[in-house]
Amino acid sequence: xxxxxxxxxxxxxxxxxxxxxxxxxxxxxxxxxxxxxxxxxxxxxxxxxxxxxxxxxxxxxxxxxxxxxxxxxxxxxxxxxxxxxxxxxxxxxxxxxxxxxxxxxxxx
Amino acid sequence: xxxxxxxxxxxxxxxxxxxxxxxxxxxxxxxxxxxxxxxxxxxxxxxxxxxxxxxxxxxxxxxxxxxxxxxxxxxxxxxxxxxxxxxxxxxxxxxxxxxxxxxxxxxxxxxxxxx
Lengths: 108, 115
Known about the structure:
The complex is a heterodimer of chains A (108) and B (115). Chain A has 108 residues and is mainly beta. Helices cover 0% and strands 56% of the residues of chain A. The radius of gyration of chain A is 13 Å and the shape is globular. Chain A starts with a strand and ends with a strand. Chain B has no helices and 11 strands. In chain B, strands 2, 4, 5, 6, 9, 10 and 11 form a 7-stranded mixed sheet that branches. A 4-stranded antiparallel sheet of chain B has the order 1-3-8-7, with no helix packed on it. Chain B is globular. In chain B, 31% of the residues are buried. The interface between A and B is medium-sized, with 21 and 19 residues.
């Protein structure tokens, strides 16, 4: 069974702090890794993807990948209340498999 | 219009009704997808079309019938649904199903309620 695991949360962080979202996956053959943000009542929106070990930065977002540990994370620096959403991790093997998502709450 | 559009946005239907969901992508992509999203569950991939050919059918009941007349349009025909089929149905597209960087772009979804 190919799985993607995420803590459902909610993860609560104060405004301005770093939010750290984690994801583990079971298939070592996984090729690419994606983070989607989904606001309540809306559809998922792609915010980051990563396919090589290490870090990838885009503005306030940093994706981190460790294939040996089968672990991918998303860091959000200077968290804002507008970042409050569910963050979905998705892993590409022969198809895209999604986790259940982590709900992030950023409070003022 | 840009991106991926879906109609209708909301649909309420009885178990004996027949209805269709429509998806259109304006991104020039080659692959299109139907997903089901239920509360507390991961996104469930239902169907994949690549260059108008169905390449995946994830053991979806026959009461769901997809149609892809061209690379820009995707339909999901519904008949004799059950209340447990109530969910958010999301359409997505990507440049190519087989590429390593399979970035999928989602439409706004159709919120389906089966009475």
